[in-house]
Amino acid sequence: MTDVVDSDELLRRIQRARACAAQEERAWRARGERLDREDPGDAGAVRDAEIRTVAYGVVLRVLDEILTPGKHTTPG
User: Fold this and answer.
1) In a domain, 3, yes or no
2) pLDDT given for residue 1 in this prediction
3) Is residue 31 part of a domain?
4) Which of 14, 23, 60, 76 has the most crowded Cβ, counting Cβ within 10 A?
5) Would you tell me how many other CB atoms lie within 10 Å of the CB of residue 20?
């Protein structure tokens, strides 16, 4: 990739990525809750949804830190 983008375009791209990650996190959380409620015997699918929810949550925290440094403090 050799395209050069200015800081405003980079910010817009990060914001779009954050919005996408937030939407996916909500969707996987809802799917996991639905699966747990409707088919609790399918533990593998429920666990997969939980893992994906956590993964998208991590992506959100990383993008939030890029967009608003220091907003979320990490325990350490």
Assistant:
1) no
2) 62
3) yes
4) 60
5) 13
Are 29 and 53 in contact by the 8 Å Cβ rule? The answer is yes
Question: Rounded to whole angstroms, how far apart are CA atoms 27 and 67?
Answer: 23
Q: Which domain holds residue 19?
A: 14-67
Q: What is the 3-state secondary structure (H, E, C) of 8-68?
A: HHHHHHHHHHHHHHHHHHHHHHHHHHHHHHHCCCCHHHHHHHHHHHHHHHHHHHHHHHHHC
Establish if 72 belongs to a structural domain.
Answer: no
Query: What is the reported pTM?
Result: 0.81
Instruction: Tell me the per-residue pLDDT of 12-26, one tens digit each, with 9 for 90 and over.
Output: 999 999 999 999 999
Number of domains composing the chain: 1
Residue-wise pLDDT tens digits, 33-64: 999 899 888 889 999 999 999 999 999 999 99
- Tell whether 63 is covered by a domain: yes
